[in-house]
Design goal:
The structure is a single chain. The chain starts with 18 loop residues before the first helix and ends in a 23-residue tail after the last strand. Helix 25 packs across helix 26 (about 605-610). By secondary structure, the protein is an alpha/beta fold.
Length: about 850
């Protein structure tokens, strides 16, 4: 029966304990060990039962216990200290305010389909969401004027459990929003904020929720409101659930609804950051608002939005990108395009990488790229992969210069490091390590940590992991109705001193979870050794519709069920944040076996590094740039194969050899004190080199300096000076109209084809510009080494700055080349548009090479 009235019941907390609510409703507590300790102190069992959810715990705590606590002077003193800490944290000067000035409101809106902030907010599925959560936390640490926007899913992602045969089963649990650390977002009139979005033949309403993440806020939209139909209330029911139409509906609510929520609060959206293409409709809404609400012409509005949009792609394969048919787009965006001031064909071009490809569907990655002048991949290798994916959109541009730069991911240190390791760092590195994790000089002090202390700390974490894994396996078997003797054996699984290897991730076929099982007898010998035992802890989910991923899980379960292996290999169900934290804090070795180059980045191995674990991985994602011989192990040498079976055979054998001949011997080689000195040396080398590089603070500073600050500057300049904007757009129109006239008529050098090292060579290019002037262009040498096919590689542009007017629209451009190393080199000449307001040289996608020559 439907309720006649609704009542929101809030936790009742005595006045002396009121700071508990302030702390509980700010996710600052999730990376503050003292705050977590405070909640555990209130009721440790209830803390576990509520899934580490302080709001739910406060609502369930007996009034008698609250009365006790308000008279517990020790507890009150701890609460008072934490209240002061949180207030001081929010008011203290930050890196951004010191470097770029304080801002009284957010200037960047960061949009993502999922956010993995803490285990009691299950609105994430995996790496994309965890990265978004760490992005928000690091933005808080550095004081970035940023606000997040996402969706609040009623059922989130699924809970995983396995049947007796090892098949993954899915269970969906409703999120109780009123017992989560979130509150309704209140608008200017004091009422819950709601936004309205036009859908075909109806309006969909989304209500907004407010999440405090330290100094920054996250707004989440939810369509489960009475104003909507039964079907529309389900739009935000599940993360990545439903068909393609449900996907476009979710992305419209996220992108268009998200920007409208920001506007309703009176925030000035200077820049938008699209975390993957799911949120790219937000750029269209920003254009529409400029045209409809601020009287900009569409061309000028497009210029402002493109200048102030950042796009981060995480997708290494085209199949992972959302695409929508033209009829579906017409249904949802026909009127919207008219409000933007665009014809339908112009609108559809925004979602196509190649404007002339009239039959292509509307592609969300193409939309994101077409609406942003600042784009990045999430590792160096992924940047190269992404440029190859979209190179046809820049057909005349050398592939290395397609404008997708790498900004490698990092992890929020304090969210993932163990309390024991954190205290060790405090003692020997000083407290600055957590506030300034990107400072290399701090991590040089790793050498000051005595080997004995580092190893004992790590051993305690392994012991905790083994204990937690045993409890979890026992619980899994009890829920499955297993026999008593099976449950008893599970309680004795694993060994607290054995080499412990962790493998946990999404079970997609390209991640090759069973690569280690290709020679089961060889693996069995490693696992069952009496003198040098090895044990595996495995976790991960397959997408509900991914049958091949589920087959991989079942294969592992059947292998692990062999009697001699039951204590050496365990599969832990329902991989989520708390389990991930336990794993990365306790394993000796983190194993990663993706099929190169399909791992965009991967961040689990980074979390392991901060806890003293080592990595053994394919040279893919972040490990391709992080690996060195003294920091961990590489499986293979970065080869890429066309034959997948051959690749699996070669790389599985390479993995076995690494384990047999290097990893296992190094772990078990002990000195007279029982310490594995060689292993500890690698732990220290790994932490010293990688911790300052692969943390989220470094990542956020890179986003701020390379993208956010320039985008904010562009917004302030173009938005406030319409005359300058109009002038710039007119300049671009003029260059585009006259670009076909530009031609390179002659290139001359006076080197005779042979020069000595250090000798300069003069080059002159004669260029016809027609109606353009030398101020409109930049003429460059494209100079580099030659490969055996006479292709220029490792090229660098060298300007030709000396200009002479030859008359009749022709000009000569002169410059010099000087090489400090011998070898065979080659060059070409190119002409590009040039203007001080351009975000990058390829903003207009125009370039002129000598006649008959292409960039590739």
């Amino acid at each position: 029966m439907k309720a006649l009235h609704t009542i929101d019941v809030q936790p009742h907390v005595p006045e002396r304990l009121s700071d508990l609510l302030m702390i509980a409703y700010d996710l600052w507590w999730s990376w503050n060990p003292q705050a977590i300790q405070l909640f555990r102190r209130m009721d440790a069992d209830l803390w576990e039962q509520t899934g580490h959810n302080p709001v739910a715990m406060l609502g369930a705590l007996q009034q008698e216990r609250l009365d006790e606590l308000q008279h517990d002077e020790g507890f009150l003193a701890q609460l008072e200290r934490l209240g002061h800490q949180l207030r001081d944290y929010k008011s203290a000067p930050t890196w951004f305010s010191k470097s770029h000035g304080a801002s009284d409101q957010p200037r960047i809106v960061y949009l993502s389909a999922e956010f993995g902030l803490t285990e009691c907010m299950p609105i994430y599925s995996g790496g994309l969401g965890l990265l978004a959560g760490d992005h928000m936390k690091a933005a808080s640490e550095l004081g970035i004027p940023l606000v997040g926007v996402g969706l609040l899913y009623q059922r989130g992602y699924f809970t995983q459990y396995l049947n007796t045969d090892g098949w993954q089963q899915e269970r969906y649990n409703d999120n109780d929003f009123f017992n989560m650390p979130i509150r309704h977002l209140v608008g200017a009139e004091g009422q819950p904020l709601k936004v309205r979005i036009d859908f075909p033949r109806r309006v969909v309403v989304a209500q907004a929720w407010d999440v405090h993440v330290g100094r920054v806020r996250l707004f989440l939209l939810d369509t489960n409101v009475p104003e909507n139909s039964v079907e529309d209330r389900k739009i935000t029911a599940e993360l990545y659930g439903g068909d393609n139409e449900r996907r476009i509906q979710q992305e419209i609510v996220l992108g268009i609804g998200g920007i409208r929520a920001i506007a309703a609060l009176g925030y000035r959206c200077s820049a938008g950051h699209l975390n993957e293409g799911h949120s790219a409709f937000s750029a269209l809404e920003r254009v529409r608002a400029l045209v409809a609400d601020h009287n900009f012409v569409v061309g000028h509005a497009l210029e402002i939005v493109r200048k102030t949009t950042v796009f981060t792609t995480h997708t290494p394969v085209p199949a992972g990108i959302d695409q929508f048919s033209e009829p579906m787009m017409q249904s949802y965006f026909g009127e919207f395009a008219r409000q933007m001031g665009m014809s339908w064909s112009e609108f559809m071009t925004l979602g196509r990488l190649e404007a002339n490809d009239r039959n292509a569907p509307f592609n969300m990655m193409s939309l994101a790229l077409n609406m942003s002048y600042r784009a990045n991949g999430v590792s160096r290798l992924h940047g190269r992969v992404s440029r190859r994916m979209v190179e046809r959109g820049w057909p005349a541009v050398p592939i290395d210069e397609v404008p997708i730069v790498p900004i490698t991911n990092g992890v929020h240190t304090r969210s993932w490091i163990s309390q024991e390791m954190s205290e060790l760092f405090d003692r020997y590195l000083g407290p600055a390590w957590s506030a300034q994790p990107a400072d290399q000089t701090i991590w040089e002090r790793i050498e000051h940590i005595p080997d004995e202390e580092l190893w004992r700390t790590h051993e305690r974490r392994r012991e905790r992991l083994v204990a937690a894994a045993r409890r979890r396996v026992v619980r899994q078997l009890e829920q499955r109705g297993a026999l008593d003797h099976e449950i008893h054996l599970a309680g004795e699984a694993l060994n607290t001193t054995a080499l412990t290897i962790g493998f946990a991730r999404r079970f997609a076929p390209y991640k090759r979870a069973t690569l280690l099982l290709r020679d089961p007898d060889r693996l069995k010998r490693l696992l069952t050794s009496d003198t040098r035992p090895v044990q595996l802890i495995i976790a991960g989910k397959a997408h509900p519709n991914d049958q091949s991923g589920k087959d991989l899980i079942r294969e592992i379960i059947h292998f692990a069920h062999q009697p001699e292996l039951r204590r050496r290999i365990v599969f832990l169900e329902d991989y989520e944040i708390s389990l991930a934290r336990s794993l990365v804090q306790g394993v000796d070795l983190w194993l990663n076996t993706p099929r190169r180059p399909m791992e965009a980045c991967g961040t689990s191995g980074m979390k392991v590094v901060f806890n003293g674990g080592l990595n053994a991985s394919i040279l893919d994602g972040w490990w391709d740039e992080a690996y060195a011989r003294d920091r961990g192990w590489a499986i293979g040498s970065g080869e890429e194969y066309t034959d997948g079976n051959l690749q699996d055979h070669i790389e599985s054998d390479a993995l076995y050899v690494l384990l047999e001949e290097d990893i296992i011997p190094l772990f078990y080689e002990r000195d007279t004190d029982g310490l594995p000195r060689g292993w500890i040396a690698r732990m220290k080398s790994s932490m010293r080199a990688l911790c300052p590089r692969f943390n989220a603070n470094r990542m956020i500073r890179e986003y701020a300096e390379r993208f956010y600050v320039p985008a904010i500057s562009d917004c302030d300049r173009l938005g406030s000076d319409r005359e300058a904007l109009a002038t710039y757009c007119e300049w671009k129109d003029n260059v585009s109209r006259n670009w076909d006239q530009v031609a390179i008529s002659k290139v001359e050098s006076h080197d005779g084809g042979r020069v000595s090292v250090g000798q300069s060579v003069g080059v002159t290019a004669s260029v016809f510009l027609g109606a353009l002037t030398p101020r409109d262009v930049r003429v460059e040498l494209y100079f580099g080494r030659l490969d055996p096919n006479d292709e220029v590689i490792d090229a660098a542009p060298i300007p030709l700055p000396e200009v002479h007017d030859l008359g009749n629209g022709s000009f000569s451009f002169k410059g010099t080349i000087t090489r400090r190393r011998s070898g065979r080199y080659g060059y070409s000449v190119r002409v590009l548009p040039a203007h001080h307001a351009m975000a990058h040289p390829w903003e207009m996608r125009l370039v002129r090479w000598p006649s008959g020559q292409t960039a590739r």
